[in-house]
Amino acid sequence: MKLLTAIINKNDAGQVGKALTKAGFAYTKMASVGGFLTAGNTTFLIGVDDGKVDDVLDVIKNNSASRKEYAPSPVFAEHGMMTITPPLEVQVGGAIVFVQPVERFEKM
Fold first, then answer.
1. C-alpha–C-alpha distance, residues 54 and 27, integer Å
2. What is the total count of domains within the chain?
3. How would you class 44 by CB atoms within 10 Å of its CB: exposed for 0-12, middle for 13-18, buried for 19 or more?
């Protein structure tokens, strides 16, 4: 058995959740925040048999998309002058998925 921890862009979370349910995969969903852009994400915890990992990854991949966003502009103050750098455009979205082995699983 494996535990998949999938961090999904908040704009894709609803579609990913619907697709996982339609494909028969149960999950737990939590709100989360990323550190770089301090943007909202959704983290899914999905427990599956080893042979179903690729099926879950396909569902996530097919229902999440990458996009471009702008990182906040840093402001520097030095020698009494403020310097504002232009916003940095970064590629975000899609999904980050961690696959971990599960030593023991019990429903109580």
1. 16
2. 1
3. buried
Single-letter residue type at 52: K
The CATH number assigned to the domain holding 56 equals 3.30.70.120
Report if residue 106 sits inside a domain.
no
Which secondary structure element, helix H or strand E, spans residue 21, and what is its range? helix 13-22
Domain assignment of residue 30, given as a range: 2-101
Q: How far is it, in rounded angstroms, from Cα 38 to Cα 64?
A: 19
pLDDT greater at residue 87 or residue 11: 11
- The DSSP bridge pattern shows strands 95-101 and 2-9 to be antiparallel
- Give 38-71 pLDDT, tens digit per residue: 667 899 999 999 999 999 999 999 999 877 777 7
- pTM metric for this prediction: 0.76
The distance of Cα 18 from the centroid of its chain, to the nearest Å, equals 16
Query: What local confidence, expressed as pLDDT, does residue 47 receive?
Result: 96
